[in-house]
Amino acid sequence: EAQLVESGGDLVEPGGSLRLSCAASGLTSFSDDGMSWFRKAPGKALEWVAKIDPSGRTTTYAPYVRGRFTISRDNAKNVGFLQLNSLVSEDTAMYYCSVGEYLGQGTQVTVSS
Q1: In this predicted model, what pLDDT tens digit does every residue of 46-82 receive, in sequence order?
Q2: Which residues on neighbouring strands pair with residue 111, listed in sequence order?
Q3: Which residues, 6+ apart, have CB-to-CB distance to 92 below 8 Å?
Q4: Which residues partner with 23 through β-bridges?
Q5: Whether the Cβ atoms of residue 69 and residue 8 lie closer than 8 Å to each other
Q6: CA torsion, points 74, 80, 83, 87, in degrees to nearest 10?
Q7: Residue 23, phi then psi, degrees to nearest 5
Q8: In sequence order, which residues have a C-beta less than 8 Å from that of residue 3 and are 6 or more positions away?
Q9: What whole-number distance in Å separates Cα of residue 81 and Cα of residue 109?
Q10: Cα dihedral sign for 18, 19, 23, 29?
């Protein structure tokens, strides 16, 4: 069964950092598909955060995270990452990764003092 499992979410103070991981299993085309991260805050719509191409060479970011978040992937290990720096309260959300048609179950990031 193909699945994506996110991890690394936590409670962190403003200005802090986290590294989210997205581990893929059962996907035969992980290295052929782009990866995206999304997030959903309570009461708000799902919003796109960042994406990376299959090779890992091209990345794109939403303006509200550009310069603070970094997306990467390791195709040899079927895993993707989202480094979150300079976190602010507005970054509080459930974070999801997506590869091809698959979406993970999410990992919670809470930014609060």
Answers
A1: 999 999 999 999 999 999 999 999 999 999 999 999 9
A2: 12
A3: 41, 109, 110, 111, 112
A4: 5, 79
A5: no
A6: 180
A7: -100, 125
A8: 24, 25, 26, 102, 104
A9: 14
A10: positive
What are the phi and psi torsion angles at 91 (to 5°)? -85, -5
Beta carbons of 109 and 93 less than 8 angstroms apart: yes
Residue 44 DSSP one-character state: S
83 pLDDT higher than 90: yes
As a whole number, mean pLDDT of residues 4-27 equals 97
Neighbours of 63 (CB within 10 A): 6
Q: What percent of the chain has pLDDT over 90?
A: 92
**Token duo for residue 48:** 């796109």
Residue 51, strand partner residues: 36, 60
Residue carrying the six token digits 């191409």: 53
Structure tokens at 92: 């509080």
**C-alpha to C-alpha distances, 11 to 8, 29, 34, 87, nearest whole angstrom:** 10, 33, 28, 11
